[in-house]
Predict the structure of GNAT family N-acetyltransferase.
Amino acid sequence: MSDLHLRLGRLDDAPAISLLARRVARRWILPDQSHEAGQALLTRLGTRVLRERMREGQRFHLAWLDGVLVGIAGMRDDSHLVQFFVGTRYQGRGIASRLWRRAMADALRRAGTRRFTLNATRVAVPVYEHFGFVVAGPEGFSPAGVLTTPMALELDRPRVRA
């Protein structure tokens, strides 16, 4: 996919990030959630909240295709994937894999991260397993009431040469 452009998000990208995240969440996440949890999630994906998270240091890696935002990877503390969305019509094209590799490489470069975590919704568990994540605990409700499964990815530790 040679037209795909990956870059770090900026504050002025927040409206586009919000639009894509909310669209994907409505289609894929909200059906498994209570109404209250779904509405709270949509609020957390609003432009104002996303801008604040960016100001606080959360990094958003963005995938653009022909000028259209098609994917988002939001990383907190260079170790916890908090948001990961690829537009429905763009799924199955390898965008998610490229976006994840980009976010992971950034965290490795910035912080030397060797362990990544996330809380996956039911529909996303197979995607994260494809990336090498494993289930790290039982499915349950987050403090915000969203039904998720904790997952982790442990990178091989570098070997020390004797």
Observations:
- Residues 16 and 42 are 14 Å apart (CA to CA).
- Helices lie at 14-29, 35-44, 47-55, 95-111, 125-130.
- Strands lie at 4-8, 59-65, 68-76, 80-86, 115-120, 134-135, 140-141, 147-154.
